[in-house]
Structure formats: C-alpha cells, structure tokens
Amino acid sequence: MSENNLRDKADTFALRIVKCSTHLKKQWKEYVIADQILRCGTSIGANIYESKFAQSNADYISKLSIALKEASETCFWLNLIHSSEFIDDHTFESMSDEVEQLIKILVTIIKKLKEKEEKKPQH
C-alpha cells in the first residue's frame, strides 16, 4: 500500500471520528468520551502525516508506532461507546473494521521497516 493510500484511509477515518464525537456531544451530551475518541482517532492520521517528514528511519518507525498505539486506543473507545449504546451495531462494525484495517496496514509497514533496519550492516 502506498503512503498516499494510507493517508487517505486515515483521513476518511478521522472524518468519521469527528462526526462520531459530534454525535456523542449533541445526541447524548457525552463530552468526556467524545473528546477522548476525538483525540486518539484523529491522532492516527496526524502521526501518519508527521511521519512523512521523519528525520530518520527510526523516527519514521516511531511516528507510525505512535499511530498504531492511537489506533489501538481508538478500538477501546469504540467498544465502550458501543457497549454504552451510544452508537448502533452497524456504525460500530463499520468503524471497527476501518480502524482494524489501519492497524493491519501499520503493523505490516512497521514490521517491514524493522526487518529492513535489522538487515543493514552495522558500522
């Protein structure tokens, strides 16, 4: 997958997170959870974008690893808002699928980058 495709997926997901957060605030007056999912759900894309200008391969891996951690946290909050019945099954399944796709892509990229780093000759 190209870096642009990953960014596009992260953009699309971040937009859904913004809408979800807005829904939680307007419909349910739930501000704390709305802010939590907004922060971690949009941070995925922010870190992916930031990785583009990484200062080294280690920095690049680090930025993508942060995006991966934020995606994992987003799963937690999605599960919580679904269990609390703030979102319906269809929305939950769709958003969970999107974030799981991002996680799989990030894991694959990070693994490949780490393997590549390990194969480099040491000076």
Name the structural class. mainly alpha
| Individual helix count | 4
Provide the residue-averaged pLDDT.
96
Distance between the termini: 31 Å
In a nutshell, what does this entry contain?
The chain has 123 residues and is mainly alpha-helical. The chain has helices spanning 3-28, 32-51, 57-83, 89-119.
Strands, helices and their partners?
Elements: H1 3-28, H2 32-51, H3 57-83, H4 89-119
Describe the 3D structure.
- Helices cover 85% and strands 0% of the residues.
- The chain has 4 helices and no strands.
- It has helices at 3-28, 32-51, 57-83, 89-119.
- Helix 2 runs antiparallel to helix 3.
- The protein starts with a helix and ends with a helix.
- 28% of the residues are buried.
- The mean pLDDT is 96.
Tags for this model:
123 residues; mainly alpha; 4 helices
